[in-house]
Write a structure and sequence with these properties.
Blueprint lengths: L1 E7 L3 E7 L6 E7 L6 H12 L5 H6 L7 E3 L8 H28 L15 H20 L5 E5 L5
Antiparallel strand pairs: 1-2, 1-5, 2-3, 3-4
Length: about 160
């Protein structure tokens, strides 16, 4: 599956997803956040941790998440919802792991009141640092209108 993260002006981005099970989909312009798109963080962390049943794994299998819409109008199959019903717990677990890795990478508190227990070991967190650094550098280097291509299952 190919995930195209297109950098837009004013700290925004859009995503185009191709070569997946199900129709090609896109996410229209969204705020990027302080470092890079949240869905790019997902691709990086899920890859670094070998998570195959998280957000992007489910998307590759045909799941359709809120905000993503088919590129071509036509018959919309409800199979994307079935993928989520079967793998929703794994997607949620991946979300927690990705958010924790990103929190640690950004230097936000990972201990103290209200933070909770890490879903990741120190070794797992360490595996995410260099890939997040590399993705942030790739994203930062893109000019507005530029695209970062992430090939799910092969990029690191």
């Amino acid at each position: 599956m190919d995930i195209h993260f297109r950098k837009l002006p004013d700290q925004r981005h859009e995503i185009l997803v191709r070569a997946r099970k199900g129709p090609e989909v896109r996410l229209t312009a969204q705020p990027t956040g302080p470092t890079m798109p949240h869905d790019l963080v997902h691709a990086v962390v899920e890859t670094a941790l070998g998570i195959e049943d998280g957000f992007w794994g489910a998307t590759a299998r045909g799941a359709t998440f809120q905000g993503f819409e088919p590129i071509e109008t036509g018959r919309h199959r409800r199979s994307g919802l079935k993928v989520l019903r079967r793998g929703g717990d794994a997607v949620l677990a991946a979300e927690l792991s990705v958010n924790w890795a990103y929190r640690a990478w950004c230097g936000l508190p990972t201990e103290g009141r209200g933070v909770g227990r890490s879903p990741l070991t120190e070794e797992a967190l360490a595996r995410t640092t260099a890939p997040l650094d590399a993705a942030a550098a790739r994203w930062t280097a893109l000019p507005p209108g530029g695209t970062l291509l992430w090939r799910w299952g092969t990029d690191h």
